[in-house]
Amino acid sequence: MRKPKEKKAKKEQFQLKTPKGSKDWADKDMVIREAIFQSLSSMFKRHGGVTIDTPVFELREILAGKYGEDSKLIYNLEDQGGELTSLRYDLTVPFARFVAMNNIQAIKRYHIAKVYRRDQPAMTKGRMREFYQCDFDVAGTYDKMVPDAEILCILVEGLTNLGIQDFKIKLNHRKVLDGIFEVCGVKEEDVRKVSSAVDKMDKLPWAAVKKEMVVDKNQPEEVADKIGEYVKLKGTVRETIAELKKDELILANASAAAGLEEMEILAEYLEAFEISPFVSFDLSLARGLDYYTGLIYEAVTEASSAPTNADDLKKKAKKSKDGEVEDASDFVGVGSIAAGGRYDGLVGMFAGANGKKASIPCVGISFGVERIFSLIKMRQQQADKIRPTATQVYVMAFGDGFLKERMSITKKLWAAGIEAEYLYKVKANPRKQFESAEKAGCPVAVILGKDEQANGQVKVKLLGPEFTDTEDGEVIVSISDVVETVKTKLAQANVGGMNEITRLLKGL
């Protein structure tokens, strides 16, 4: 009796892609990203930082109420075993929770990790839903503005070390801003709402910001007009302080006066660190996050702003089935590439949950790696020269293959800290070996030949067309000298003593 034919299992159909606002990273991009991480982390260590790591998700109540209007961008997870959790929105709130939970009185910490936001992606501008932040924070009680000034120094040092020179640090003080709002007649319960509207002045014209204040935030028109007179002020720290001190209403306001006093102290320290030219005291900067209590700042470049015809480009942008724009890259700017501020009440908020009264003052900076990466990738000519692998030396053989000998020399190079590879073939074809070396972008080859091997020697050769006809393009040395010779040749291959990734980061 014949068995009935079994029905073929229906193949599951799905779209093979990464989730919206995320991407895979590989090859040259990963080399550049790792170099950025290394540059920033080594700088953090120079400033006395110790690193920590925290869970990628937090209890939902830890994150709730810390981000103002941006709280809607938090990724909430499903109930798992009776706990409501959310993916971390930034690294600042988890750090404050860590300090409070462990009763830490003073720490300089840095943290490099991924954070998550349900924002509108603009992939080529580094605006994503999953992205890295590189944070440095100082927690502890110190003299006024001393840690704040060093944080700003770290901001300048971090960006200039990455070859970013044409940036401006927009600086403001929450006490000054709150004082201005009070003077203009904003009620205390409306201060954060008005602050979030002012924070949009880098993206919208004043008329649109004023409309939001009046229509959406229910502020009288005369209040909005008064605010407009103040928030358009900007200049050097000393210039803006001098302008504000001409205003008797500002000087009579306790909050604004306290903020100006701190800004005058800061001006001295910025000059000591020689970073004043990078800083602008800009009263339009508000930073919408609720936890800031003092100095606030963000670094911007020409690429930060949206194109002048952004509205037209937005209308033409490709949309998904639900009507949402898939990628806003064409009509938005990079935005700020680093930002931060002082948040003296956040640790105390968590400490209070444990019945403790201690409040630890904190100040910090966060570098946006994806946005910085997008700026570095714009250096197209240098970026094209980046090699996808770290391999420096390819160990080859002509003739008999010499597999064991290739293994032995490669091991010597590894032991000396030199990145090296060889072809996994007993009988290695010379052409395939050179192709593999070219694919890896190796600047140097160590070549074993029958005659050289009989004399305990190898050939060390610089690869690349620029070294083909040069007298010092290759040398024959004893196997015992191969490591030192390779080091010499690698230095010779580097332009100006720097490899291609160093030159890219320095913008050379």
TrEMBL record:
Residues holding L-histidine: D90, L91, T92, R117, Q133, D137, R287, Y291, Y292
GO process annotations (BP): histidyl-tRNA aminoacylation; mitochondrial translation
InterPro entries recorded: aa-tRNA-synth_II, aa-tRNA-synth_II/BPL/LPL, Anticodon-bd, Anticodon-bd_dom_sf, His-tRNA-ligase, HisRS-like_core, HisRS/HisZ, HisRS_anticodon
Keyword Nucleotide-binding applies: yes
Reaction(s) catalysed (UniProt annotation): tRNA(His) + L-histidine + ATP = L-histidyl-tRNA(His) + AMP + diphosphate + H(+)
Catalytic activity, EC: 6.1.1.21
CDD domains: HisRS-like_core, HisRS_anticodon
Annotated region described as Disordered, given as residue ranges: 1-23
Highest rank taxon of the organism: Eukaryota
Keywords: Aminoacyl-tRNA synthetase, ATP-binding, Cytoplasm, Ligase, Nucleotide-binding, Protein biosynthesis
GO annotation, cellular component aspect: cytosol; mitochondrion
GO MF term (any one): sequence-specific mRNA binding
Stretches assigned to the Aminoacyl-transfer RNA synthetases class-II family profile domain: 1-388
Compartment(s) of residence: Cytoplasm
Functional note: Catalyzes the aminoacylation of histidyl-tRNA in both the cytoplasm and the mitochondrion.
Family: Belongs to the class-II aminoacyl-tRNA synthetase family.
Protein name (database record): Histidine--tRNA ligase, mitochondrial
Organism: Babjeviella inositovora NRRL Y-12698
